[in-house]
Design goal:
Strand order of the largest sheet: 1-7-6-5-4-2-3
Mean pLDDT: 94
Helix content: 40-55%
Strand content: 5-15%
Oligomer: single chain
Bound molecules: pyridoxal-5'-phosphate
Shape: globular
Number of strands: 11
Distance between the termini: 82 Å
Length: 477
Amino acid sequence: MTTGHDAVHDEGLGLDPDDHDRAAAELGRFLATYESGLAERPLVPAVDRAALGSLLDPPPEVGVGVAGLFRDVEERVLPWSTAVSHPRFLAYVLGPPTGIGPYAEAVAARLNQNCNFWQLSPAASVIERSLLDWLAGLFGLGAAGGIFTGGGSMATLSALCAAVADRRPDFRERGLQGGSRPLVVYTSQEAHRSVDKAAALLGIGLDNVRHIPADDRFAMRPDLLAEAVHTDRAAGREPCCVVATAGTITTGAVDPLDEIADLCAAEDLWLHVDGAYGALFALVPEVRARFAACSRADSVTLDPHKLLFAPLEAGCLLVRDAEKLRRAHAFSSSYLTVADDPLMRDFMDFGPQLSRDFKAFKVWAALRTFGVERFRTALRRTLALAAYLGERVEAEPGLELMTPVTLTAVCLRLVDATDARHTEVLHQLAADGTALLGPASLSGRTAVRACVTNHRTSRDDIDVVVDRLAQLARADQ
Ligand SMILES: *Cc1c(COP(=O)(O)O)cnc(C)c1O
């Protein structure tokens, strides 16, 4: 005879103590062996359509159990997953998560805090706020508020929303349908596509986004920015916001933030700094000065899932006048009763989401576990490795740098090779397991881009990549 207790258990969605132990052991083993075996893993899985097709199977009526699930991970998921944490995965800006990151995700999932209003998640509310305070301090935006987001794109979307709502107090009621003059957003030709995307989603319209040309170091030209603002005003349009970039995605160029801030002050424009890739290098004293003018911005986008090595997703938006962010996003509601408290934040009022996960926890957990100095050291290392990569490329007669290395993104070409040959070289490097590099387009030419965002990459890894590139370049001569 089964007891009522057993019956509930058999049909339930919890784990019994044995399964808890099994899951913990399997998880620990998976994480440890994944980490130690990384350098031997293929960078990019050979796509096996039959194997991937089997993942289309509908869920089973009777489950496979804990051990079965971890077998699935090993046999059906892991082999077809890109090894983004491999030390020679140098495409995009995508670092490996810290070792504690996956465990922190598990804790956050267990607590399952809904970070919408503080009574529902008091510790989470204060932890998210404490990180925002710390980051605001880092950028000289001491009194700023903000929110953790799903990434840099979402942060920039909310920043532009705040900028528009600030410019048009009736934006919430009338949208941009009021028939008044079109608002114009300025950014550079090297800006991330998330700026265009935000402008499109907010109804600003891509026709009202100006992509200001860059100088020969790929930073925005402030003289041409000023000209564009004046031209739009003269034509009856309404300049609204400038999105400057602190570390462009392709080359790591930092726009002249001080000059742009001067212009924004003179022209009464909202200054947003997209620091998703580069701004967190401000943690490193040697390069901090380049980001000092973030202190003059109205808002700043950061991406802890890049330079703070948080597992995806963790973006962050800082806004100098948090009230402006709140006015753009807060809606009172009948079933949520909240009371203001100086210690707490109701984060639902600072972004588009209501139910929100506890993203700040994995960032906080890693900073607690390792301490800030270790992050500083990791970032300093990536900067040094990128500089070393640049030096090695310059010393190779068959290779050329397309622009001096500023942060950790390095763009290079094989001397005299066609664009098509560059694409071929990228495939070759991936296929022979040397490295995954990215393509980049610079001044209309195709480049090979290597971005060091991995705290595990070593000088030996850089040598492997440059030696192979030099060998391929020699084969062309
Ligand atoms: C990565 C990046 C973004 C987009 O951020 P997501 O987190 O991918 O949404 C925007 N701008 C720059 C400069 C970036 O490097």
